[in-house]
């Protein structure tokens, strides 16, 4: 037991991220052979596992309502692996390693379907394969300079090169991961070793409909997202016009065109915004809310639900989490529960919800969104919810009397408001 407790090294563990770039698939004929045969393998594996999957329904009473719960049991991989592999080898015309990959992908599809079906988010029918792609294992690819050779069959290969591409300098010296082959595109993930940094700054971000309100321990910063919201709103208007005036076939083509354009504009805006944010705050610990849109829709009215549907908070958080390590930064997700209702100074929880937060216990008054960013900052620093006072949830441990600490809270609401500065996105872009 003592051997397991020994520290092997005082150095931090190595961490990696993958930088993925795409190439146009200029070997479509050769790739089609691989994709079609792999689809047959995957479909056979899926059918075989589906025949051995059990679906159980159970009725449970909740008050006056009777709810049907679904429980799905998949065959255990260890018990059926050898039998399934032998069945797939009978129809396999590719390299043998593709059989193992097809089994793993089939299990991945069924597990994903199982999670959604048990929550009632998917039907209980067999999942269908639409567009199949192949993720090539490391045993089936060989890197030669600035190209990768992929085995299709024994002594049959496809070679893709990224020489003279726009990203060739960026990936020089990086290790190639598992390429992903689609009908038109090939994705190349490169592994990048992260340098180890200790964060020197902290930034807590509260996500709202039109702004991101942040607190960095000294001042408040507001980033405007109105331009991003207007892109989504403009697309909604275009979609309505297309549905009213266009024929079915023509309408589908127009919707596909404008939807693709909207996604590109939104992603372009988000990537530029995140780049500017990370340049303003390098080597920083970011705290963001772990938001759940489905729960928001349940509690909101129709008007608010439409506005929430146009937000892209999770995309911003995902891109920030992806790019932060490149700047020596980290992202921490925080539970948003009671962040806008708790007093950051004394911990009192207010039942009243409005634009301005007023603490009935200590008298602190400030904007609700700023109050949320303060509480997110405190949660990031390790101040959890406690229940010290009977029948009252205490939002955070009070920081009153710790004025000299780094990142301590202001004393009164007037001092809070003087710390606020407004930075709009178009001014820092």
UniProtKB/TrEMBL annotation:
<dbReference type="GO" id="GO:0006310">
    <property type="term" value="P:DNA recombination"/>
</dbReference>
<keyword id="KW-0238">DNA-binding</keyword>
<dbReference type="Pfam" id="PF01385">
    <property type="entry name" value="OrfB_IS605"/>
</dbReference>
<keyword id="KW-0815">Transposition</keyword>
<comment type="similarity">
    <text>In the C-terminal section; belongs to the transposase 35 family.</text>
</comment>
<feature type="domain" description="Cas12f1-like TNB">
    <location>
        <begin position="313"/>
        <end position="376"/>
    </location>
</feature>
<dbReference type="Pfam" id="PF07282">
    <property type="entry name" value="Cas12f1-like_TNB"/>
</dbReference>
<dbReference type="GO" id="GO:0032196">
    <property type="term" value="P:transposition"/>
</dbReference>
<feature type="domain" description="Probable transposase IS891/IS1136/IS1341">
    <location>
        <begin position="198"/>
        <end position="298"/>
    </location>
</feature>
<dbReference type="InterPro" id="IPR001959">
    <property type="entry name" value="Transposase"/>
</dbReference>
<keyword id="KW-0233">DNA recombination</keyword>
<dbReference type="InterPro" id="IPR010095">
    <property type="entry name" value="Cas12f1-like_TNB"/>
</dbReference>
<dbReference type="GO" id="GO:0003677">
    <property type="term" value="F:DNA binding"/>
</dbReference>
<protein>
    <recommendedName>
        <fullName>Transposase</fullName>
    </recommendedName>
</protein>
């Amino acid at each position: 037991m003592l051997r397991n407790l020994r520290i092997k090294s005082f150095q931090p563990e190595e961490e990696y991220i993958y930088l993925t770039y795409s190439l146009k698939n200029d070997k479509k004929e050769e790739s089609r052979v691989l994709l079609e045969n792999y689809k047959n393998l995957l479909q056979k594996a899926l059918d075989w596992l589906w025949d051995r999957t059990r679906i159980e329904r159970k009725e449970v009473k909740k008050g006056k309502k009777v709810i049907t719960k679904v429980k799905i049991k998949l065959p255990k991989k260890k018990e059926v692996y050898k039998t399934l592999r032998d069945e797939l080898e009978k129809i396999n015309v590719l390299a043998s390693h593709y059989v193992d990959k097809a089994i793993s992908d089939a299990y991945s599809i069924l597990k994903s379907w199982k999670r959604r079906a048990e929550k009632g988010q998917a039907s209980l029918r067999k999942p269908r394969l639409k567009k199949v792609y192949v993720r090539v294992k490391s045993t089936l690819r060989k890197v030669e300079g600035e190209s990768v050779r992929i085995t299709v069959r024994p002594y049959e290969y496809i070679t893709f090169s990224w020489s003279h591409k726009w990203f060739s300098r960026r990936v020089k010296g990086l290790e190639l991961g598992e390429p992903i082959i689609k009908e038109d595109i090939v994705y190349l993930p490169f592994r990048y070793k992260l340098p180890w940094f200790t964060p020197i700054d902290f930034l807590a971000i509260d996500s709202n409909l039109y702004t991101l309100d942040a607190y960095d321990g000294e001042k408040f910063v507001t980033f405007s997202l109105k331009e991003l919201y207007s892109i989504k709103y403009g697309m909604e208007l275009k979609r309505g016009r297309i549905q009213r005036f266009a024929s079915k076939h023509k309408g589908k083509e127009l919707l596909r065109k404008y939807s693709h354009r909207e996604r590109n504009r939104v992603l372009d805006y988000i990537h530029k915004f995140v780049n500017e944010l990370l340049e303003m705050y390098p080597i920083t610990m970011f705290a963001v809310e772990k938001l759940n849109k489905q729960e928001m829709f349940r509690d909101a009215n129709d008007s608010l639900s439409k506005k929430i549907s146009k937000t892209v908070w999770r995309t911003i958080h995902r891109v920030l989490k992806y790019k932060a390590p490149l700047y020596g930064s980290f992202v921490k997700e925080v539970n948003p529960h009671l962040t806008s209702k708790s007093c950051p100074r004394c911990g009192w929880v207010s039942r009243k919800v409005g634009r301005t937060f007023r603490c009935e216990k200590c008298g602190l008054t400030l904007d609700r969104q700023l109050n949320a960013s303060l509480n997110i900052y405190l949660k990031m620093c390790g101040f959890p919810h406690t229940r010290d006072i009977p029948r009252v949830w205490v939002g955070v441990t009070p920081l009153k009397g710790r004025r000299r600490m780094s990142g301590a809270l202001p004393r009164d609401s007037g001092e809070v408001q003087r710390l606020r500065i407004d930075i709009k996105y178009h001014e820092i872009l």
